[in-house]
């Protein structure tokens, strides 16, 4: 193995998810490759930061709270009700990409706005970069954090490859929520599991004015149709403010 291993392969190696022969080959490569050792060490540091900031007890408590207080999405045309645990959180992913920044966030240059998505379950917790695509297993839950910067409102929704929209975080009257006061990162409440199979795109929108969920959903469906009904190929919704996206693959 002369080429460097992809970060996704190193993540799977660290999590014990590679098949026996592939894992042995990867470990042999890492043992003689300084660059892959550096990336693997970075993944270990990332994991340590993640678990220090959001201990599993807090993560699990969010899951338990979500399961005890399920919320059904409000009735909307073509709105999906497959969300398990709370009308809230995100999907996510990880394509083959080198480590870009330690916090694994998407930040709009100059605005101070950013977001991060983290996955927890039976195995190690992990953070996923916006714009990436990662497989999320049925037993795993997701939490999402944000730094609002100058934007006072946040809205989150998802769209799957069948064209069904799911409201994730919105007010009871289906508009953007007000962000939490104070600088720094905040976590949207509870944890969420997504059911079904295929790809789903999660969209988090930070804006100066509250957005109407119905209007955002209609714009998302137009973008989906323009992308040939492929959520992974959708263009930004261009609704102003900041849009942060992930694609989640559900096997």
Description:
- This is ACP synthase.
- The protein has 251 residues and is α+β, with helices and mostly antiparallel strands.
- It folds into 2 domains: 41 residues, no CATH class; 196 residues, no CATH class.
- The chain contains 5 helices and 13 strands.
- The strands form 3 sheets. Strands 5, 7, 8, 9, 12 and 13 form a 6-stranded mixed beta sheet that branches. Strands 2, 3, 4, 6 and 10 form a 5-stranded antiparallel beta sheet that branches. Strands 1-11 form a two-stranded antiparallel ribbon.
- A hairpin with a 4-residue loop joins β7 and β8.
- α1 crosses α3 and α2 crosses α3.
- The longest helix has 20 residues.
- The protein starts with 6 loop residues before the first helix and ends with a strand.
Quickly list its features.
six-stranded mixed β-sheet, 5 helices, 25% strand, alpha+beta, five-stranded antiparallel β-sheet, 27% helix, globular, 251 residues, single chain
């Amino acid at each position: 193995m002369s080429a460097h291993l992809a970060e996704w392969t190193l993540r799977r190696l660290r999590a014990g998810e590679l098949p026996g022969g592939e894992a042995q080959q990867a470990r042999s490569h890492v043992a003689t490759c300084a660059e892959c050792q550096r990336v693997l060490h970075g993944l270990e540091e990332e994991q340590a930061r993640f678990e220090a900031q959001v201990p599993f007890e807090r993560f699990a408590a969010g899951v338990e709270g979500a399961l005890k207080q399920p919320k059904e999405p409000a009735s909307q045309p073509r709105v999906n009700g497959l969300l398990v645990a709370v009308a809230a959180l995100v999907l996510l992913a990880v394509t083959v990409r080198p480590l870009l920044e330690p916090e694994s966030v998407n930040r709009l240059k100059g605005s101070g706005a950013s977001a991060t998505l983290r996955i927890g379950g039976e195995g190690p917790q992990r953070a996923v970069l916006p714009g990436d695509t990662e497989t999320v297993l049925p037993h795993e839950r997701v939490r999402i954090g944000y730094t609002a910067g100058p934007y006072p409102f946040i809205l989150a929704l998802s769209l799957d490859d069948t064209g069904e929209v799911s409201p994730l975080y919105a007010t009871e009257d289906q508009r953007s929520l007000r962000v939490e006061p104070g600088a720094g990162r905040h976590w949207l409440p509870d944890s969420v599991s997504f059911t079904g199979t295929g790809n789903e795109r999660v969209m988090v929108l930070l804006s100066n004015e509250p957005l109407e969920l119905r209007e955002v959903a209609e714009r998302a469906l137009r973008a989906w149709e323009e992308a040939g009904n492929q959520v992974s190929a959708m263009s930004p919704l261009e609704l102003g403010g900041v849009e942060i996206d992930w694609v989640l693959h559900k096997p």
